[in-house]
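Notebook B, p. 112. Complex prediction, attempt 2.
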Amino acid sequence: MSRATTQSVAEIKARNKQLIDEVLKVYPEKTAKRRAKHLSVHEAGRSDCGVKSNIKSIPGVMTIRGCAYAGSKGVVWGPIKDMIHISHGPVGCGQYSWGSRRNYYVGTTGIDTFVTLQFTSDFQEKDIVFGGDKKVTKLIDELQELFPLNRGITIQSECPIGLIGDDIEAVSREKSKEYGGKTIVPVRCEGFRGVSQSLGHHIANDAVRDWIFDKSAPEASSKFEPTPYDVAIIGDYNIGGDAWSSRILLEEMGLRVIAQWSGDGSLAELEATPKAKLNILHCYRSMNYISRHMEEKFGIPWCEYNFFGPSKIAESLRKIASFFDDKIKEGAERVIAKYQPLVDAVTAKYLPRLEGKTVMLFVGGLRPRHVIGAYEDLGMDVVGTGYEFGHNDDYQRTAQHYVKDGTLIYDDVTGYEFERFVEKIRPDLVGSGIKEKYVFQKMGVPFRQMHSWDYSGPYHGYDGFAIFARDMDMAINSPIWGKTTAPWKDAPRPSLMAAE
Amino acid sequence: MTQNAEHILDHSELFRGDEYQQMLANKKALFENPHDPAEVDRIREWSKTPEYREKNFAREALTVNPAKACQPLGAVFAALGFERTLPFVHGSQGCVAYYRSHLSRHFKEPTSCVSSSMTEDAAVFGGLNNLTDGLANSYNMYKPKMIAVATTCMAEVIGDDLNAFIKTSKEKGSVPADYDVPFAHTPAFVGSHVTGYDNTLKGILEHFWDGKAGTAPKLQRKANNTINFIGGFDGYTVGNMREIKRIFELMGIGYTILADNSDVFDTPTDGEFRMYDGGTTLKDAANAVHAKATISMQQYCTEKTLAFVKGHDQEVVAFNHPLGVGATDDFLMTLSRITNKAIPNALERERGRLVDAMADSSAHVHGKKFAVYGDPDLCYGLAAFLLELGAEPTHVLSTNGGKAWQQKMQALFASSPFGKNCRAFPGKDLWHMRSLLFTEPVDFLIGNTYGKYLERDTGTPLIRIGFPIFDRHHHHRYPVWGYQGSMNVLVKILDKIFDEIDRKTSSVGKTDYSFDIIR
Ligand code: SF4
Ligand code: SF4
């Protein structure tokens, strides 16, 4: 429902509070108490959003969250294209995450590049009973034989590994030695660890630290001469090409991107990152750990940025440039100016069609806040948001830089809550994941997947903004939403009319 | 700059622009430590050789691109086929996020399912509290009529006992004592999604027929004249179930479809989200014990279920995803024999139309070689149909097929002159298939969406039949069973055959011939 039905902030707050009270009624008492801490109405001026986060999901409520394996294999490691990532355990986890995340890359798939292959140890009962170390040892030999151009191997643990007492670290060390110091990385990202994908990110970051940084010199595989303008893109998974439409801007302003973490990334890029002068961090949630580590260990500063929508892009380009000399500062201005006509044209075309429309979001690591600016650039209003696996520092950033007074906040939302909230608020658009998409479309509410960009993208950078604007328009203004009710549904029944 | 507000470029075009291509080339040359292109070519060519195939087939530990999923996926699929039933998977929560996504990506529909969200402490102390709280929450929030419990591999490894846990959790008041909570253990390290389907369906029938885990008297079978029908794990469930009902109705057969998820995976967009829709009623599930016989369309999805049903004195018959004239004849004649109902003229005419279509088009299929992969029953059904068309199902591969399946396939091949050079590959994956396609090429490949990687690598055109189909829309709405369903499959195969001829003859000034208007 557009701003046409203007409500005062006080009214919105009262409605949202009432909504929260209403949804909590469905729960058994104990659960209601726990869920109450995750639901809130944002008060301007507060330093956070007033919710608890990064806490165990409650059984049986239909959480949207995934697991640590998804955070490690699915998010952080999976996109590293010249390494082979073994889904170690039964077949399922690797199968469901096979190719579904759209981490774009270029390479000869199956020969020197492996992102869209599903490698698994496909555990059988005997592997559970006798342990899987022997199997993965042999598996590595087979990989070496059949995929000789792989640059390294990671072992992504699924649930059983940590429960049956396997020692994948020992296997990794042994095989690495056998293959002349080959990079083999054991990752303890069993799905039962932690409360969501989030711990998987952390574990994956630590594995880079322990098994790549600590084992190789930055010069190992990258022979390039450092320049004062070398940066690394951290926390961009190149979904639909996001990292590429970001990289092009950085290069146009005069910086040199020496590594992408991890979309379209390679082992050589990971290894070379300590040579960067600045790490620029997009998804804070999934890669702040390694950024902090590089700051401590190698003295590399890091800065967060946001490449969604022209306002935040310009702000970010200037922020990044502020770490460098005038040449780069001028470069940033030049880039902003260069793309201004595109921004103007996109805005002129889409803002009139989108102005005043309302949006509710529920996504993963950075998007529940990062995309708000892009919507605002199009005259839209985000009226509700929440994180699947955010921590308090995410909610702080959200409160301090992004959301408006009165925004409904829902952490680790349950299926039931989200449905009720949307039903009552009736936003013009919901942005969330594949599991939510069809629920809301059935309700007649336009929807965009904000993990996979609904198979579109990129959404980062200026080139991405044009696609973003078009996609939101396409969703909201699709003629199909005028057809969800059969025309005879509310019309008087002919028989009654005849009786009159 | 490449992007343009008037004509906004998608990723498929945007990145092919010069600026991006240059950028990517620089990235590769400077920072990626790439292999020498000659070496990449050499390995690529080597990977196509018989020598590589031999090493590839010698694999013992490594699986690459399997064509199977894990048990709980099948459990969720089966449970969703019952009236207002909420699938509840006991174990860690990430798996449930995966099952829901996987099914939704195929059907383009919501998939409702909950998890008991077990974490590290549950790994140590067991998941009883998770199950108890979870049942109570689900019951209150989503008002299901039944909660069907399965397990992830975590719960299996630590050895949680569902029967005992459900009992205890009911005692603790999670759900009413007489509330239906059927269950099945579905370890992911045994079998595949078809096994999970089987275990869950059996669990549900056992619950209703055999005294609800000791809380009610066992049902006494009073044989009647109806039959039970089981579809098995089936990506075409929406189209197939409706086709089957139509056939039953044409024949005047009294029937119960067990695990009928055709409505819940096909709800309308009319302003209302239906978390539950359609499905086998719990009453019908219970009364199914009285049926005369139970028919399964997919033997390998229902081995345990049928054994259980047989133990209740019903006749059981299993098909292997019947497709084509002969297999559908068999199916209908079996129905007719069991129910004493004649096969009506309407179906006979449909049969005649299928034969008509096959006669019209067989010249284009005859003698063509196919590679087929998928679930064991689907593979069998497709291979039989291809043989009927005079085609050769040269390589038939099923990652979740076993020895018995292999023998059955080989017997099928032996039954037809077109099967002479055909071979079944149980337990193999799509990387094996890649070697097969390079070393013993075929004309077409039939399989699910992942087959597109094989199509790209080997140039074998892919006909999408199977599960999952993620990259094409709405195929699941069309049946692939019965004479009409077989017709749909025939048209799919023919379309690809004709498209290929056009594709190969479409360069002007070179192949103006053969680019025909009439075929
Ligand atoms: S952890 Fe086990 S049950 Fe879960 S998706 Fe993976 S294989 Fe399947
Ligand atoms: S927010 Fe995005 S980049 Fe970060 S973990 Fe989620 S999907 Fe990934």
